[in-house]
Amino acid sequence: MRVTLLRHAEVEERYKNCYNGHIDIGLSENGYLQARELAKELDTLKFDAVFCSDLRRAKETLRHSLHAQDANYTEKLREKSWGVHEGLSFDEIIAEGKVAYIDFLQWIEALDGEAHEEYVKRVEEFFFEFLPSLKKEDILVVTHAGVIRVLLSLINGITLEEAFGIKIENGSLTRVEIC
């Protein structure tokens, strides 16, 4: 099964480089332009199924593509929830003085919201149980950088810390094979 992963286009300026999680924010002006350009590229491709995070930034990224009419919107493709830390940057969280950064796993466990084990499990079940059960060959998934990184960690057998070091640009496509 071939899966084309699309990270949503650029978000509103205030939320760039922040832990946005489940905040339902929209695209920036540049993000809307990215989305229109992406639609042209996506519309040249054929997919047997289309799935999209139910958050606004993902839906707005897909909106101008012909594939939007066939999309299944799901919360299973949401970014990890960061609870009270959503919408804050790393520096803003550190400045609060309530959480210190010691190492990657300590950091993601210390922040509020969805437990990282549950997040990884959610991504794993969607891509390795649900999608294969559909018996489709080519699938488009519009989602968030964190989801893509978790999937890359699982596929490539690398740590989450290594995967989260991978740059995933807004509006970029990543293609993977899932057996």
From TrEMBL:
Pfam family, any one = His_Phos_1
Instruction: Give the superkingdom in one word.
Output: Bacteria
Q: Which GO BP annotation is one of this protein's? A: negative regulation of glycolytic process
Which keywords has UniProt assigned to this entry? Hydrolase
**GO annotations of cellular component type:** cytosol
**Coiled-coil region(s):** none
The record ties this protein, via SMART domains, to:
PGAM
InterPro entries from the xrefs? His_Pase_superF_clade-1 (IPR013078), His_PPase_superfam (IPR029033), Phosphoglycerate_Mutase (IPR051695)
Spell out the molecular function terms from Gene Ontology: fructose-2,6-bisphosphate 2-phosphatase activity
Which positions in this protein are listed as binding substrate?
A: 57
Tell me the active site.
8, 79
Q: What is this protein called?
A: Histidine phosphatase family protein
Q: Which organism is it from?
A: Sulfurimonas crateris
